[in-house]
Every structure is written in structure tokens, then in C-alpha cells.
Design brief:
Blueprint lengths: L1 H15 L19 E6 L14 H10 L4 E3 L8 E3 L9 E3 L5 E2 L10 E7 L49 H10 L10 H5 L5 H17 L17 E5 L2 E7 L5 H4 L10 H7 L21 E7 L3 E6 L6 E2 L20 E2 L4 E6 L3 H9 L5 E3 L5 H4 E3 L5 E3 L1 H5 L3 E6 L2 E7 L12 H17 L2 H8 L4 E3 L23 E3 L4 E3 L2 H10 L15 E7 L6 H12 L4 E7 L1 H10 L4 E7 L6 H4 L8 H4 L10 H10 L6 H17 L2 E13 L3 E2 L15 E2 L1 H11 L5 H29 L2
Parallel strand pairs: 1-13, 22-23, 22-24
Antiparallel strand pairs: 2-3, 4-5, 4-6, 6-8, 7-8, 9-10, 10-13, 11-12, 14-25, 15-16, 17-25, 18-24, 18-25, 19-25, 20-21, 26-27
Helix pairs in contact: 1-21, 11-13, 18-19
Length: 727
């Protein structure tokens, strides 16, 4: 008996090594050593249809599958547009109201229309997909499916026949038409209808058609957009199309680098648009169809999502130039080599931070963000104040990447509120302005970043983050209402300055001079758990420094949005991440014409300044130049004085990468970056085995102790049995 137990215990380490895989590997043994990237996602993507998708957790997938005409250079900064599937970046052509050509330097007021002519490359093919499959007679295999045909079809793999075809200009036209589809609700329809000629009228036309179908009991019938022309988009030939815009809108080129303007073939729309398909979740929103380097081969957002190399990908090469430091960082070593490098990417659902972090440390995720609870374990600050990885991270070969996001988090004032926004007369507006300025000084975002963000961010001096044209650094970039310059860096004004402004606003020591009652302000936030209490307490303490009471009003996100939309919030917090790297994409958040209450725009503060609005209209259509910079400087001066926001902070993103993860350069605008990245799978397997060896000695020791305690009882029992058996 003892010998059998000991043999079993000694065999355990040998059994653990069988199969060449670590004992705790969460992935199939068949994938061991594969050229695979392993990552995670915390929230299931809602939309994968490029006409609707607008969230960062969705574009992680859509940007690898769909290819718009343009893309961003992977290495160059500032962010630079380059051709995607287009042959070149199109140049605008300008026309007056009578259709006559205008020179490139024409005044914006003279330009009635802008035309972009886009020529796409030949030979690009779509991924294999049943929407393109044809039978021996050339007819589409799956475009006329009845209820009986769909009875056994539940996933895309149930359609065995696959096909493809070449990308054509008409596919881009079709996708632009889909922006106006009444059943799809594209988030950019309103904006694009202001610029693309005829798009608003086209949306109205499609709504009438859809309403008529619903009236006739055919509300789920496929709506063939090819039957309805859109005046603002013209297909010139198989490889050329034109987009006609109202006026001048140079930022439109940035939109041409987003999945919204990627091609969608009519065949895919027809395939998924058949009655009965949506009930089985057989939609373009679930099964994207693209020409990009990857295709979605498994979509189980409650567990895992898998991207695999598109066998029909047309090919692309790694860039051969970048910034001065890129060569030294090894980022140009792959210059000219064919893309993509990685064969497969596996994204696993991880809702909790600790399991995700532990799997990263075990080598089962190739990269990781850093939560506040693991920050000290991962990062330390060198004597010069530079963030570096801790010694334990260094031993594992883990690298740290930091970059300031092109984002702004802010606290906003509702300018329609009589207390913080002021009334109709100049005196009340001036009182409210000084109140806002006092609060701007009191709320110490340097302290906020230190306490709640582990220092990961920089206090904002204006809406513009670093990396966006118009941003100024150093002494000339500080907000003089809130900061002084101490010779090296900005220094927040003393709290006495805030109290003085508060008194000038009519609230000496936080008391309303007219009523004699304490000043109470209301802070609307989305409902959050107990973990957010410390943050909200901190905000209340900041206001208390000038004896102002801040009452927090939490609510759910839908109710919060409704209050913002109707102008019922007094103070709120929000943020914005750049859609594209242009100052217009931030400054429009304070443009009077974008008032949330008046026009349902993105100006949640309902701020309106005649001077700012005039300068905005002048600035928004200008190319980057010294003249544009001067106008932006003046606009920022106006905003700083009026203080419709507490400018908050620009977050600094920290990410950790294992030694086997290569060609990494954070890009906060582009998302189609998987094709550039590399994995050294042999090094990963080696490291995983070293980090995940099971410690058998505690188990063996415990078993031996158990045997030692049990053995006397066993011996005594056997003696008793023998004694009982004797005659």
C-alpha cells in the first residue's frame, strides 16, 4: 500500500509534463507554438456593422476586417494620412455656386461644393463568404432562401459554399447610402447629412419607402439601395467614385480613414437582408464581410472572439520610415516585409481585472493595461520622475509603454443655468464667470491625478490635448486664469485667489450676499458603486475649500443623458476622445451651433460666445498654418476667460508588453494596427513553461505527512484484523 502511494506521488510531476504544454494553459494544446496573439476584452461589442459601430471595443475588430480608402501611417507623428485601398490620398477640387472650378486657395465663402475623386487599387478581393457563393449555373447560392431553407441554418458555418469577388467602386457608394438606411441608425448620419450633397433628402426618401413597406406588412423585406440614386456620390467606373460635399470641409479626409466609409458589397447586404435571417442573428452586425488582413472566424462574445488571416488579402508591406527614434527602437527592422505578421488573434472575455492581470503575468496574455490596484506591482518612478517597470517586471522581460491619449476629461457647467451660467444681463454673466473661475482654481486636478490615477495624466490647460495642432506647451500654453508660471512649470494659483473671485461673484465665504444662505451647487453623475464614493467625496472637499456645498445627484446613464439633453443638469462630468487629429474635433464641443439643448449637438455645456463662434467658423475649414494657430490661440483665450469647463486632464495610457511582442508603437488615432505587430511564439512557449511549473513538493510533503499520521492507525487496524481472524 505504501509503495503504491509513493509511486503515484512520484509520477505526478511526470504526468504534468505530458503533451508539451503547461499544466494551467487555458488554450487548446493544438495551438501551442502557434503564431497567435492572445488578448482580452471586458465588454461584448454591440455592433460590427461599419455603418453603426462607433465604440472602441467594436473598432478593435472592425478595423482589422474592413478597409476604408485611407489609413494612418503606423509610425509617423503627427498622425499622417496615407492610402488604404485607395491609390492615393485624394485632393479636393472646389467649385462655385454655378459649378465653375475654383483655385486651391479659394476663400471658403466662395466655395459652394468640394469634390473628392477616389480611385481604388485593382485586384483587391473580399474574404471567402457565402454571400458571394454561386452554383454551377452562375446563380447566387444563398440569395433566395425560404423558411424551409433556413430551418437548419443557425450560424454562418452552416452555409458550406463560399465565394469572393473583386472590390469595386460601387461598394463604397453602397456603404455611403447605408448611412441613411432607416433601420440601421448610423451615429454619423446627422453630421454627414450636413456635408454630403443629397444625403439628408436620401434619408427622407428611404424612410418613406420603408414606411410604405411596413404599411404593406413587409417591414422586414430587404431594401435594395441600388434602386435609389444618391446625388452626392457618383460611380465613375469600376475603380473610381466621387463624393460631392457642401462648402469646404477639409476634415472629411479623416472620415475616409474610418470604417464608416469602408466598402460593403450589395451581395452581403442582400444575403443578410433576407427575411428570417435577423431572427437567427445572421446579420452583418454579427458576421462582418471585408477585404482586410483578418476575418472574424469565431464570434462568441460571451466567451471568445477570434480573428484569422484572410486568405484573400491583397497584401501590404511594413513601413520603411518613421520618427527619428524608431530605428533605434527596432521598429524599422521589418521594413518592406509583407503584412500581416500574425496568423490569428484570440480575444477572451475577461470581466474582472485580477484574473486578466494574473493571466498576463503567467504569459497567457501578450499585453496588459494597468489597474490602480496593480500599479505599484508593475510601475515605479525613477529618480528623474520617469515611470519604469518594477524589478519583478524587468526579470520577466516586460516592457512599459506610456503615451498621452488624444482625450480630454472635464467637468462642465451648464451655461443655461442661472447660477453657474448667468442670466441675460452682463452683470449676472460676469458674476457667474467669476464663480466658474473660482471653482476652476479650487478643484486641484494635480491632486486628483496623484490620488486616483497614479499620476497617469497631465492637467489640461484647454480642450486641446498634446498631439493635436493648436496645442501649446510650456509657459505659452498655460491657462493664466488658473495657473502661474514658476519658471519651470505651471503652478496652480493659491486658494486665496479663488476665494477672492468667489467674493467678487457675490458669494463671500460661500454665502449668497443677497439671501444670506450658503451656496449649494449640484453635480450630476452617472450612478456608480461604492468604489466611486471616495472620488465623489474628493470633489465635495474641493468645493468645500471655498466653502461651497456640492450636492451629488447620481442617476443611471440613460437618465443622465436625458438631463443633459434637456439642460436640466447644473454641473456634470464628461470626456471626449478624438475621432480624428484636428483641433476642430475638440473645439466644436463648445461651438454655439452645437448646443445640446438647442440643436442636440455635442456642446453639452450649451456654451455660446459670439467671438468664439465667429473664430470657429473661420478656423474649421483652414489648413494648418501660422494663421490658423493664431486664431486657435485667440479662441483658447476666450474659453479660458469664460471657463465653461474645468479643463480637467488628458489621461496618460500605460501598457505592459511581454518580450515576445514586437513592432509595438501606440497609436491613439488608428486602430487597424494588428497587421503590423509580431509574436515570437518560440520565446513565448519557453517563457510560459518557465513561469508555470507546478510546485509539487508541498503536495508531496503534505501527502507524506498524511501517511505518517495515518500509518500507525493502518498498522494497528491490520494487526487487529489478523488477531480477529485467528482461531
Amino acid at each position: 500500500m505504501k509503495a503504491n502511494i509513493l509511486r503515484s506521488l512520484l509520477a505526478l510531476p511526470l504526468l504534468a509534463g505530458c503533451g508539451g504544454s503547461t499544466w494551467n494553459n487555458p488554450y487548446p494544446a493544438s495551438d501551442a507554438g502557434g503564431n497567435i496573439l492572445y488578448s482580452s476584452f471586458a465588454e461584448r461589442p454591440k455592433h460590427l456593422d461599419p455603418v453603426q459601430s462607433y465604440s472602441s471595443n467594436e473598432i478593435t475588430f472592425t478595423a482589422q476586417i474592413y478597409e476604408p480608402p485611407l489609413q494612418y501611417h503606423y509610425l509617423k507623428r503627427p498622425y499622417t494620412l496615407i492610402p488604404g485601398v485607395a491609390e492615393q490620398v485624394p485632393q479636393p477640387r472646389y467649385f462655385d455656386a454655378r459649378g465653375r472650378p475654383l483655385p486651391a486657395d479659394a476663400a471658403a465663402a466662395d466655395i459652394a461644393h468640394t469634390v473628392y475623386e477616389i480611385r481604388i487599387r485593382r485586384g483587391i478581393k473580399y474574404q471567402p463568404h457565402p454571400a458571394f457563393a454561386r452554383d454551377a449555373g452562375g446563380k447566387f447560392s444563398y440569395h433566395s432562401l425560404g423558411e424551409r431553407d433556413l430551418a437548419d441554418k443557425n450560424v454562418l458555418a452552416d452555409f458550406p459554399a463560399l465565394g469572393t469577388r473583386e472590390l469595386k467602386a460601387r461598394d463604397f457608394e453602397y456603404q455611403i447610402k447605408r448611412l441613411a438606411h432607416p433601420r440601421l441608425h448610423s451615429p454619423i448620419l446627422g453630421l454627414m447629412a450636413d456635408y454630403i450633397v443629397g444625403l439628408k433628402e436620401y434619408a427622407d426618401q428611404l424612410k418613406r419607402v420603408n414606411d410604405e413597406l411596413a404599411k404593406n406588412g413587409s417591414g422586414d423585406a430587404w431594401l435594395d439601395l441600388s434602386r435609389y440614386p444618391l446625388s452626392g456620390v457618383e460611380v465613375v467606373d469600376d475603380y473610381t467614385y466621387r463624393i460631392k460635399l457642401k462648402g469646404r470641409y477639409p476634415q472629411f479626409l479623416y472620415w475616409l480613414a474610418m470604417p464608416f466609409f469602408a466598402p460593403v458589397p450589395l451581395e452581403a447586404d442582400r444575403f443578410f437582408g433576407q427575411p428570417g435571417m435577423a431572427k437567427k442573428n445572421l446579420t452583418l452586425d454579427w458576421y462582418p464581410v471585408g477585404t482586410g488582413p483578418y476575418m472574424l472566424t469565431e464570434n462568441n462574445p460571451n466567451r471568445v472572439m477570434v480573428l484569422e488571416r484572410n486568405p484573400n488579402f491583397h497584401g501590404e508591406t511594413y513601413p520603411g520610415e518613421g520618427e527619428p527614434d524608431d530605428a533605434g527602437a527596432g521598429l524599422l527592422a521589418a521594413a518592406g516585409k509583407p503584412l500581416p505578421f500574425i496568423d490569428k488573434a484570440v480575444f477572451t472575455l475577461e470581466k474582472e481585472g485580477i484574473p486578466r492581470w494574473n493571466k498576463f503575468l503567467q504569459g497567457y496574455y501578450d499585453a496588459s493595461g494597468i489597474g490602480s490596484d496593480t500599479f505599484d506591482q508593475a510601475v515605479r518612478f525613477a529618480s528623474e520622475g520617469e515611470a519604469v517597470v518594477t524589478e519583478s517586471m524587468q526579470k520577466q522581460g516586460i516592457r512599459l509603454s506610456t503615451t498621452v491619449a488624444v482625450s480630454t476629461f472635464y467637468m462642465g457647467f451648464n451655461m443655461l443655468d442661472p447660477v453657474v451660467g448667468g442670466g441675460q444681463d452682463e452683470r449676472s454673466r460676469e458674476r457667474a464667470r467669476k464663480l466658474r473661475q473660482a471653482i476652476s482654481i479650487a478643484v486641484d486636478y494635480e491632486e486628483y491625478l496623484s490620488i486616483f490615477q497614479n499620476g497617469r495624466g497631465i492637467p489640461a490647460q484647454s480642450p486641446l490635448p498634446p498631439g493635436i495642432f493648436g496645442f501649446r506647451d510650456g509657459k505659452e500654453g498655460i491657462n493664466p486664469v488658473v495657473y502661474d508660471w514658476d519658471g519651470r512649470q505651471p503652478k496652480r494659483k493659491p486658494i486665496e485667489a479663488a476665494k477672492q473671485l468667489l467674493a467678487e461673484a457675490g458669494y463671500p465665504n460661500g454665502i449668497d450676499g443677497k439671501t444670506g444662505t450658503p451656496l449649494v451647487l449640484y453635480f450630476d453623475v452617472t450612478a456608480r458603486g461604492a468604489e466611486a464614493k471616495s472620488t465623489l467625496d474628493w470633489y465635495q472637499n474641493q468645493f468645500a475649500k471655498i466653502n461651497v456645498q456640492l450636492q451629488v445627484r447620481p442617476t443611471d446613464y440613460n437618465r443622465f443623458q436625458d438631463k443633459i439633453r434637456k439642460g436640466n443638469a447644473q454641473i456634470y462630468e464628461w470626456g471626449w476622445h478624438a475621432d480624428y487629429p484636428d483641433p476642430e474635433n475638440f473645439l466644436f464641443l463648445l461651438h454655439g451651433a452645437q448646443s445640446k439643448v438647442k440643436t442636440q449637438g455635442e456642446n453639452a455645456s450649451n456654451y455660446a460666445s459670439p467671438e468664439f463662434d465667429r473664430l470657429f467658423e473661420q478656423m474649421k475649414s483652414m489648413p494648418n498654418s501660422a494663421e490658423r494657430q493664431a486664431i486657435i490661440d485667440r479662441m483658447i483665450d476666450v474659453l479660458r476667460l469664460d471657463a465653461p469647463w474645468l479643463w480637467g486632464f488628458h489621461p496618460r495610457d500605460y501598457a505592459l508588453y511581454h518580450a515576445w511582442f514586437g513592432n509595438l508603437k501606440p497609436n491613439k488615432i488608428a486602430y487597424n494596427t494588428l497587421k503590423y505587430q509580431r509574436i515570437d511564439s518560440a520565446l513565448r512557449e519557453q517563457q510560459r513553461r518557465g513561469w508555470n511549473q507546478p510546485l509539487w513538493w508541498p503536495l508531496v510533503l503534505g501527502a507524506l505527512v498524511l501517511i505518517a499520521f495515518a500509518l500507525p492507525a493502518v498498522v494497528a487496524w491490520r494487526r487487529r484484523e489478523r488477531g480477529t481472524a485467528q482461531p
